[in-house]
Amino acid sequence: METLRLNINFLKDIPPQIFRPLENLKTLDLGRNLLKNLHNMTFSGLTELMVLGLQSNRISNLPENVFDQTSNLTYLYLQYNNISYIADGAFQHLSKLVTL
C-alpha cells in the first residue's frame, strides 16, 4: 500500500507505531479529524513517507522526535491546527521538506 486516506473520520488519537507495518507508505492523509496530540512514535517505520496531511485537526504541540523516522517527507500539511508549541529539533530530520 502506498496511499492511506483516513481523513474526515473523527479520529481523536493515533496509537504509537500503528503505521509501522506500512513501510512502503508514501502518502498518509489524516486531515480533518479531531487529533490533539501526536506521540513521539506515531510515524515510526514510515521511512518512505513523502506526503503527510495533518491539516484541520486540533493539534496543539509537536514533540521533539515526532518526525524522526520520516526523513523522505517532502510535503507536510499542518495548517488549521492549534499549534502553540514546537519542540526544538522537531523538523531536524526533514532535509527533503519542500512544503510546510
Strand content: 15-25%
Number of helices: 0
Strand order of the largest sheet: 1-2-3-5
The pLDDT mean sits at 96
Low-confidence stretches: none
What gap, in angstroms, lies between the N and C termini? 24 Å
Total beta strand runs? 6
Topology:
Elements: E1 3-5, E2 27-29, E3 51-53, E4 61-62, E5 75-77, E6 85-86
Parallel strand pairs: 1-2, 2-3, 3-5, 4-6
What can you see in these coordinates?
InterPro entries: Dev_Immune_Receptor (IPR050328), Leu-rich_rpt (IPR001611), Leu-rich_rpt_typical-subtyp (IPR003591), LRR_dom_sf (IPR032675). Pfam families: LRR_8. Keywords: Leucine-rich repeat, Repeat, Signal. The chain is an all-beta fold and 100 residues long. The chain is 0% helix and 16% strand. It contains no helices and six strands. The strands form two sheets. A four-stranded parallel beta sheet has the order 1-2-3-5, with no helix packed on it. The protein has a two-stranded parallel sheet with strand order 4-6. The radius of gyration is 12 Å and the shape is globular. It starts with a strand and ends in a 14-residue tail after the last strand.
Q: Which descriptors would you attach to this protein?
A:
6 strands; 4-stranded parallel beta sheet; mainly beta; two-stranded parallel ribbon; 100 residues; 0% helix
Give a brief description:
The chain is mainly β. It contains no helices and six strands.
